[in-house]
Every structure is written in C-alpha cells, then in structure tokens.
Amino acid sequence: MFGNPGRDIVSFAENKKNDIGLIVIGSRGHSRAGEMLLGSVSYTVVHKSKKPVMIIK
C-alpha cells in the first residue's frame, strides 16, 4: 500500500457515488504533540472531513 490513508478515507467518504453518512474510525496515538490523543490517520480524517466522524477509543 502507498498513499495517504487519512486523505484516502476522506476522499472515499465524500465521493457522491458512495452513500456515506458517518465515518467511524479508531483512535491510537504514538507520535507528534498534535496527534498525542489521536493517531495520524484519525487526526487527518477528523480535520479534513466534512462528514461527521465518530472516534472509537
């Protein structure tokens, strides 16, 4: 796999061909200060998506 998983998830969810009403994603953080509570993928999804996002811890 290659690419940016967070942006790929957002792109897929916001594609009008897909009937996505809510993004559910897990939380896991090990890196930078801004991502201490969220992993980098969930951080990207929460901040880039126009769809509602539910974080499961």
From TrEMBL:
Per its UniProt entry, which superkingdom is the organism in?
A: Archaea
Any Pfam family hit? Usp
Q: Which InterPro entries match?
A: Rossmann-like_a/b/a_fold (IPR014729), Universal_stress_UspA (IPR006015), UspA (IPR006016)
Positions of the UspA domain: 3-57
Matching CDD domains: USP-like (cd00293)
The entry sums up its family as follows:
Belongs to the universal stress protein A family.
Q: What is this protein called?
A: UspA domain-containing protein
